[in-house]
Each structure stands twice: as C-alpha cells, then as structure tokens.
Design brief:
mainly alpha, Arc Repressor Mutant, subunit A, 5 helices, globular
C-alpha cells in the first residue's frame, strides 16, 4: 500500500463482498472456510483476494487484512495495539 494512503478511502474502491472476505480473513478464516461461509467457490474467494491486493496496493492478503484490522481498531477508538509498536507524530 502506498505510504500515507487512507485505508478508509481505499476501501471505497472495494465491492461489499470483497470487504466481507477481508473481514473474514482478519478473523482467521481460511479461503476454504470463507467460501463455505459465503456460499461461493474457493476460486471466487481467490479472485476477491486478488482484487483486494491490487486495489489496496498490498503484496499479500495478510498485509491488507492487518491494515484493515488496525483501521477497524482506530475507528472504534482503540489505541491499545498490544505488541505492535505504533509510531506517534513528533510534537
């Protein structure tokens, strides 16, 4: 993903089903489990995964999922990222 890119804005380029695939990926579902959960083929899940990677400019679906999860946490007002070291702007 490009440095400084706004994930919320980029999610606007994804179809709702792709966002659902990304959400299930964040929850630890395998592609096979996602296919079963959504009632679609694994091949369709793979196509959504490719779309997500391309449109969010991520090298892997895992990278996209982590960024999505962090954005969800920020949106919920959470700042306790546990083991993640979050860079804070200089004052």
């Amino acid at each position: 993903m490009k440095a400084g890119a706004d994930l919320v804005g980029l999610l606007g380029v994804l179809p709702p089903r792709a966002i659902h695939v990304l959400d299930l990926t964040c929850r630890g579902f395998s592609q096979k489990q996602i296919a079963h959960e959504l009632g679609i083929s694994e091949r369709t899940v793979q196509t959504y995964a490719r779309t997500i990677r391309i449109r969010l400019e991520c090298r892997t679906l895992t990278q996209a999922a982590v960024m999505f999860a962090l954005q969800q946490m920020r949106s919920a007002g959470r700042t306790d990222y546990g083991f993640l070291e979050v860079a804070k702007p200089n004052d």
